[in-house]
Give the backbone structure.
Amino acid sequence: MTGRTGRGVVLEEFGEPLALREFALPPAPDRGMIVACGYGGICGTDLHLKQGHLPIPTPLVLGHEGLGTVRELGEGATHDAVGAELRPGDSVMWASSIACGTCPPCRLHREPTLCENRRTYGVNRSTLDGPELSGSWADHIVLQPGTTVVKAAEGVDPLAAMSLACAGPTVVHALYERRPVRLGEVVVVQGSGPVGLAAAAFAQLAGAAKVIVIGGPAERLDRAAKAGIGDVHLNIADAADQEQVLNEVRAATGGQGADLVIECAGVPRAVAQGLTLARRGGTYLVIGQYTDAGDTLINPHQIVYRQLDVIGSWAFTGAHLVEYVRLLPTLAARFDLASLVTPFPLDRHADALAAVADGSVMKAVLTS
Ligand SMILES: [Zn+2]
Ligand SMILES: [Zn+2]
């Protein structure tokens, strides 16, 4: 096992260009495995990590979403999370985080997504702690014992599987644990990035009567419409008069407002708007404000007058990734997920990040 190496894209200094570095590839850890990555997704969160907006240790190999091929199984690593036998050569996806199992949220509140000590590939696994290859923007990743690994959905294009790799499980958590979409509901989704499209697609799958997507720019909404995601698409990003667009949204709901409004915009001021788009007695589900982007003004009377349930949802666990993978054949049959993805080779990571930052791609995936 000597002489093996792997390459990974490393964040060395906040705000500086990333570097493709070579590292020794250790043997597979007991009950863990080495995976040849193949696909490493770029998530909006990664742009914030790169700029130092979140307190993370550096240097580290980035990438918390991945799909790849099992190269080597460690002692005792025999089955995936749903009990399917694993062999080298199998295509797998893995959950980004491992919850500690002992902190109050894990042990007492039954909410491992809120674990105070979770270890996350590509986020808080510094190369100094080893193994260095602990992110998915790499040709290999070392998966530790306790990682939720699941065989990739058979017959689904890996790019389709990667289209909602982080957004899909995030929305599964929100809709399964926080507030489900009910049959025949009118749903408004704020935001047309991957999280917004995941929310819209799942709402359609769950039997919503109508899904109205508000977002922008126009190309993003066109891409969503072409992929079959959402029934009505309204561009608020490029609108001169936002209030007029909000009135169009209300009209599209039938005039009363939506049964459920799902915030996936990540922009604080979207919250004040979203509160006014729900019907009286409706629900406002807030998923998009994952990064602290600051304060905003809201009118709290809207919450009481409309008697809203306002619900937050944070991240996901391995169980939600497994559910996303289970749903992928159904999702991919109904929506053109692969069309949302632009692949970039690993050594073009800078171009890929620039394209995500300027919004010219919906979803960038590094391939190796
Ligand atoms: Zn992510
Ligand atoms: Zn914990």
The chain is about 25% helix and 25% strand. The longest strand covers residues 33-41.
